[in-house]
Amino acid sequence: MPKKNSKSPPKELIESTHAFLRKEGCGVELQVDLPKPNRSKMVLAPIANPYDVDPKVQFARHDWYATQTTVVPSDKHFSDVIGTEYRRWVPGDVIFENVRCGCGKTKSFLDALDYYKREQIKVLYVASREQLMRQTKLSVAKKLGSEYDDYPPKYLDPIETFDNFVFFKTYQGLAKIYEGNGKFRPDVFDENEKVVVYLDEAHWLTSDALFSSQPDHFLNGFFKQFLSAIVILMTATDWDCFEPITEAIPHTYKPKVLDGYECYTKEYPDVRYDKVYISAPLKLNADLVYFDEYEDLVQRINSSESKWLILVASKELAEKLKAEIQGAEIVYRETDGYKMTDSALEEKQNISLYERFNCRVLITTPILDVGTNVNDRELKNVVVDVWDPVQAVQFVGRKRGNDRFSLFFHNLGIDKVKELLVKRVDEPLQRMKELVEASDAEVSSRNDELAEEIKAGRIYSRNGKLCYNRLARKKLLNLRRYLRHVLWEVDKYGEQSLLAHQAELFGHTLGECQDILKETKQTKRNELINYLDSLEGKELGKEEYIEFCKKFDDLLTRLTGKKWHRGAVMHQEGKLNEIFAENGLDFAVKNVKGIYTISRNDE
Known about the structure:
Blueprint: H1 11-24, E1 30-31, E2 68-72, H2 78-82, E3 94-98, H3 105-118, E4 122-127, H4 130-144, E5 161-162, E6 166-170, H5 171-179, E7 195-199, H6 204-207, H7 214-225, E8 230-235, H8 242-248, E9 257-258, E10 261-262, E11 274-279, E12 286-291, H9 294-302, E13 307-312, H10 315-324, E14 328-331, H11 342-354, E15 361-364, E16 379-385, H12 389-396, E17 405-410, H13 414-437, H14 440-444, H15 447-456, E18 459-462, E19 465-468, H16 470-493, H17 496-504, H18 510-534, H19 542-560, H20 573-582, E20 587-592, E21 595-600
Helix pairs in contact: 3-4, 5-7, 13-16, 16-17, 17-18, 18-19
C-alpha cells in the first residue's frame, strides 16, 4: 500500500484551481478538501458509545480519495454546470455524478454524444430497469436522428446498438456474462478502442444486492473488461454505492495532469484521479405531513378526492392497504406467487407511456424507484413508508413537475427502528458470517438457512465455495450504521431527530421538522380532548366504560407513542386519574355504584 500523505493541499494549488474554474466559466468553487460532512451521507466511522457511532462524525463520504468536487448550485441544471468538461476526460478516469433527480444527468449524457461520435469514441450505456432503458433509447435515437426514433417503446427492447456507435445493456445482462467469466461484445470493446461507459442509476449495485447476487457478479467482471475506459457513474443517492465501487477499482494508475494541474490524493498519492459532482438537496415544493397509524392515513385518503401515490416496503402491506382504500390499485415487480391484475398492468403501462395513472390511489413497492416518471398535475399526495433513505429519495424523485404537493412520512417510532435494526440488518449479517465461515458439517445441519440466504442472494457459491455477496454485506453494514446513528441522535436530541433524517433528505430543516411535529401533536391532543369533552355529562356502564378505555388508550398512544395499559384494558378510576394528571389532561373520572362519569376538573 502506498505511503499515506496527511498533508493538506497547498494553498497555491487551491487558489490556482479556483482561478482556472472561473476562467473556464464554470461559475462554481472547486473544493480540493472533502466537503463538510452532511448527515445525509451514510459512511460512519465506528466509535464507542451506546450505538457504536461517532457523535462528531455524521455521514461522510469515503475519504481515502481526496476527490475534486464541483458543487452544483440548487438553481442550476447539472448539464449547464458540467458544460463540455467531458472533452477533458481521459481513458482510466472514473467520474462520479451524484446529482439529485431531474437535475439534468441524462441531458449531459445526450449533449456529449456529438463529441464522442466525432472523436470515434464508442459509448456503452448501462441501466437497471426496462423502462429507463426504453426512455434512454428513444432519447438517443432522436438525438442521433436514427431510424428508431419513431419505434414503439417495446420494439426497442431487442436493439442493442445504434449505428455500432452507442451500445445498450442492462446491469443484469452484463452480470450474467461476467458470472460465466465472459466479456460483453469483445469484438467491439477491445483494449485498443476508445470507450466511454455510462452507468446510470449506479445505486442499483447496492440496492438490488439485498435480494440478488447479480450486482456482485457485475462488479467482479466490469472493471476487468473496461479497465482503460472512461467510466461515468450517475445517481441521485451515492451514500452507500460509491464506496464499494471505488474499492473494486484496481489501484494501478499514476497521477494525471487534468484541468491544468496535478491532482492531489489524500491517502494514495499514486491512485488515479476521480472527479465527483454533488448537489445539495433541493428543498421540495411540498408540505411535510407525518402519520403514526395506517388507520389515520386510510381515513384521510378515503375522505380525499385528489390522487395519491404510495410507496410501501412489501407486497403484503400493499395488499392490506388496497383492501381498505377506495379506488386503489397496486403495481409491483411480478415474481412467483405475485401476479398483477389486468387493471394494474394497464396502470403500469399508463405510467410508462404517458407518465400518469388513471386510478385515484396507486400503491407500489420500490419497482418505481428508477426509470419511471410521474408528471401528473392531479397528483397532490405522495406517501413514503420505507426505512431505506435511498429508496425514499429515488421514489420521491419520480414525481416530476413543480406544482405543490403533500409529502407523507410514516413516523415509525423508536421501537420499530430497533426492531428493523435487529431483524432486517443484524440477524442477516450474523447468518451470512456464520454460514460462510462454517465447516461443511455445520453447513449441512443448516440447509434451510443456507437455502434462504442463497435465494435472497446474500450468499452464493463460486468454484464450490460459499462466498459473501460483498455488496449486500456492505449495504447492510451501511444500514446498520445509519440506524444506529438515528437511535443515538434520538437518545440525545429527542424524537424529532428520527423525523429530521427524513425531512433533511428533501432539503427541509430540523426547525421545520420540529414545527410540523409540534403541530401534529397539537392536532392529536385536540382530538383526544374533544373526545373526552364529548363524554361529559354521560353515564357509562361497565361495558361502555371498557370501550371508552380502549379508545382513550388508542388516542393517547398515538399522541405519546407509549402504551398505557398492560393486560386488561379497563383502568380503575384512580389509575386513570393518574394518567390524566401525568399527561396534563384536566379531567377526572368518578365511579358511583358502577356508573362512570367523565368531567373537567373545574366543574
